[in-house]
Amino acid sequence: MELNVGIKHIIDGNAIIIMGAGASYGAKNAFGDFPSGSRLASELYKKCDIDPDDENDLQDAAQCYEERFSTSSLISEIRTLLTCSSFTKSHTTIYSLPWMRYYTTNYDDVAMLAARENGIAITPVTLSSHVREYADRERLCVHINGHLGHLTETTIHGEFKLTANSYMSRDHIMNSEWGNLLLNDLETAKSIFIVGLSLKYDLDLSRILFSPDFIAKTILISSPDLSNNAENRLKRYGTVYKIGVDNFAETIQEVQKTYTPQIKDEADRLYTTFLHDYKRKYCFEAPTPEDVFGLFLNGKYVDSLYYKTDGTYSAFVYRDIFSDIERAILNGKRILFIHSDMGNGKTACINELRHLLSKQEIHVFILTNAESTKLSEEISAISNLSKTSKVLVIIDDYTSYIDILKKFTLFDNKQIQFVLTARTALNHNKMPSVLSDFAVQENDSAIFNLNRVDNTGIDHCIKVFERYGLFGKRAGLTREQKKDYLISPRKCSRKFQAIMLDVIQSQVLSSKVEELVENIKSSSKQYYNAVIIILLTKMMNLRLSVLDIERILDLTISSDALFRSNPAILELISFDSDGKITMKSSVTARYILQKVSTPETVMTALNSVATYAVKYLSIAKFSQVLTSIISYSHIHSFLRGFRDSDRVILSYYDELSKLSYYEQSNFFWLQYAIACIEIKRFDRAQRYLDTAYGLIPQDFVPFQINNQQARFYLESILCGNSLNPLKDFEAAHKLLMLPISSPNDNEYNVVQLFGYYCRKRMQLVMADKEYREVYKAACKDAHNRISQFTKNHPMYERYLRDLKFKLMRAYVD
Fold it and tell me: N- or C-end of the chain: fewer Cβ atoms within 10 A?
């Protein structure tokens, strides 16, 4: 990168600086010039009367000095030699600039004192400081190796990297929470300036900076006396300028004379990672039948769907819970969790919120492109915008984007509100860690369950279906009969997914879907396989890119004009300007995968995804793919929809077990065991649980396996498969009463299993005279544990209130 361009990025506030010893060149202590690292080492060796093998080894020199004298003597010596008594005008020029962030390997205060000369306050922090307390400060200097102002007999062997012992500690930046902030800053910055740092000994920093994305925007300012060998080494990390601190400052002043800083307006920024809506102007027209069919067949939301007649939507199925969610947002709830099983209304809810709230004084951001190179930059921009404006961030299927949520936690900005949606099973697993990461206080969050359609929603369904002829053969039913059909447990059971599938399976739409699939098949078997993998990828939210899909299939689809112009394919998926593929309707996809394609086709496709992902295990998203496609909580609602689903599930896991990666995975065998418990194959379930236990890594707490082993015992009793119900019940209770010993263990998952104790069949079995006292004592234990859990986590009270009552009744009666 050209130096002048980089300096303009500094002036605009879009650059970070990483400082080494050379950045303090010209500063003085009470006795003269600041010593370099090598000179400091030489001084310490000299005072120890040691003739060293390497006189530049500061770590060993400091260690020797401490051993020869004392820790307090070493601290006193370091303070004497590194306390800044004066600095240069160049330092004032450089450190007074609006840097995004300062990082330094130095211990001294040169940057802070020089900036103060111009009335600018820089806050120094070390790796033991908490990011959340400081990350939002405009002027922050992270002392990677420790700060002189924090130097004590305690810190000198930990956060203060000086002696050999301190360097042996694990407290380097990437092991601290500051590592994530550094990575975020490196990704966000338009320029990275490394001043006076050789990178020869800073191995942690070197590894981080050695990335093509960072190298392209990195400028290294070094001494004019830099050797050719050192220059060649530094060129591996960016563009080297051998001009020294003074000439760097002069160049900055020259650029400042002619350059006017760009005014940043985060509200007007063109976002690529997020869809941004604010005071959107809608041109309302009444919906057409094509608009409604487009919604139910392709999941396409258009403005006309929100057209109102006499104050109510004409074509949108509105539910009272949408109003509750909107009210919670307007009342300032910080994090809202919206969960349901697939196809039960999360997307409809998000679009309705976007439509309503973006017309108000709220900036609505919806995550649309998690792989954007602008991700970190735009998260920083949204955080800045939230300081002056009301901001709502919506992340659909948030459990797949925990890494992105963690980027938001780097900014201690409580003004941002979040709507996070997920499938029900996954939400309960991830919700506690999100609340912890964001340090959410009591009454700052809310949970909404969309799995059941309320009466308002049912009435809207009937009205819309009648108006647009979607009831098909049931059109002749009375209103009451239609309502009964939608709410009856034997029919649609108030589940929007079931209602939608019934609509699609009606003669009106099912024939059209089947015709689409047949057209794709007849045009090309390869295209058909591509569509199946795309539908699976999008429906299971596997985060595979178009390039990944092409490599899996050994087929180019992004530039294949025939594929991209195929009318049948375009009914199911769409391509944006960047070539990104979007699935139009998850319900239609589910119908195709379960009712039109064959289980063998689907399993072959998922197996090919796994085979591909194994090749790139070191990349986080592929590791997540391998976990997602075997997680029973993730796939059961999908695989259970097939005919002969028990055989399909066993065949699926059997096929994947042939991959060597899964052979040695305790998580895989645990998921296989869960599947076998579900379909009552207890002999195989116990074998796979034993295998999961056998593959536990050293020091690993097998909380998930313990929970499923307890569930296995309880299910065996309920199904009459247990040879000794009392022994199995006691074994299950012992496992469920184990204290939480892993930060990843979700206690809610544990206490939910106490629900087995209240099953009628369990109560009948345990009514035996020999079992009764053991059963009552266990129910009392369970009741006490749930009471303590809800006291610690009040948000779960309403979910567990009924279970607590049943357990209390069981041990009292």
Answer: C
